Amino acid sequence: MDQGNLTHPWSTTQRLTIEGCTVSTVNDRLSQLQSLTRRKKSHSASSSTATQMIRKLLLSDYFVLYLTLILFMSAAVFFPTLGTPGNIANQLQNMWPLLAVAIGQTFVLILGGIDLSLGATMGFTSVVGAIVMAQNLDPAFFDKSPLWGTLMRPEGGLLAGSALAVPVGVLVMLIVGTSIGFLNGYAITRFKMAPFMVTLVTSTFFAGFALWLTQSRNISGLPEAFIELGKGDIVSVYLGPKLTPDIARRDILQFITYPFVIAVGLAILAQFLLSKTVFGRQMFSIGTNRVTSDISGLPSQSVIIRVYMFSGFCAAVASILYSARLAIGQPSLGGGNLLLDIIGAAVIGGTSLFGGKGSVRGTFFGVAFFVLLLNILNAMRLDPFVIDAVKGGFILLAALVDVTRTRLMNREQRA
């Protein structure tokens, strides 16, 4: 056989027919395998990129902010009133009192505890402040009160008509709120009681005490200087043509308000305490592992008491803002589902219910998301019970997202 006329089987591009079947040569098969491999690698790379993007988004400190912006832009398509300047200004005013009290809850959750007494603290401090500042009281409403004739009179409260009424009243509210926090912290550390039980008892007691002192009545007649703390503005804007020399007050939008300054100032202070002080590092350490912190010699009891005192202080600040905005001392101020909103805003903002994780920035984003969600649900004209159910569902979803984020972070740390 002539060897020079033979075609090597590894280099031919012809097709061989064997018993009626066409079989590709080795080169064709290799090309097909290489093409298939490239497609699999490309698909795997795109899937890996998508997975990394999702993981990066979930672990981002601005995840809730992105979610809030997406929700706002989506909802504004169906409810155009959400994007009007007036509605945005109004919702911003709703944020500041909630932010103030949610900051206190954030501190407690980072510590690994919980404060169920925040609502009752707000109601009780609202009543105490009104008793000090009220300028007139109706005997028909308050003559059955145990304080009638002493601290409560027809002429008003304890400092009615005095120039010191507002500063003293505000100071008393802050002291009372901080004192309630001290009672919570002391009972938890001294008697080794569960924070849930201690703050639940405190909530029940002070909520009932406020109702008893006022006979379930709201105290009106608060000084204008105090009301300014909840309604006053420093900078206002008007968007629109000036058709008349005088512009109606309702057409002027509040831009920088006293509640904004107070709440943001409190947030800056709280963030400084968390990130720049030994006290903040001790909080995270205790929240991560209380036993290890005790063994390491950290003053756990002192830190816990101070955290609950700060939580009560934040509740008093929120009480000042709410009471001034409503222009009344309201014993049921923190009632209803406000506690759900407080905890929900902190959890949605990334604060862990298991302790050791949280930030004031995240809580700010959580408050913004929660206020926007409530605004959308009200725009949908849903039943109040349905609104509460939806809010509860979002809090549960936030807790699940928190668990997922924790697992992802643990995996990355191990890797």
Kindly identify the CATH topology. Answer: ABC transporter involved in vitamin B12 uptake, BtuC
In what range is the share of β-strand residues? under 5%
Q: Work out the number of β strands.
A: 4
Mean pLDDT: 86
Strand order of the largest sheet: 1-2
Question: What is the terminal-to-terminal distance?
Answer: 64 Å
From the spread of the alpha carbons, the general shape counts as globular
Indicate the CATH class. Mainly Alpha
Largest sheet: 2 strands, antiparallel
Give the C-alpha Rg.
31 Å
Order of helices and strands: EEHHHHHHHHEEHHHHHHH
Count of folded domains? 1
Low-pLDDT runs: 1-24
Portion of residues within helices: 55-70%
Number of helices: 15
Could you walk me through the main structural features you see in this protein, from its secondary elements to its overall organization?
- There is one protein chain.
- The chain has helices at residues 26-59, 63-78, 85-110, 118-133, 139-142, 165-190, 195-214, 224-231, 258-276, 278-288, 290-295, 300-326, 338-348, 360-379, 384-414; strands at residues 16-18, 21-23, 233-237, 253-257.
- It is mainly alpha-helical and 415 residues long.
- It has one domain: Orthogonal Bundle (ABC transporter involved in vitamin B12 uptake, BtuC), CATH 1.10.3470.
- The longest helix has 34 residues, at 26-59.
- The radius of gyration is 31 Å and the shape is globular.
- 36% of the residues are buried.
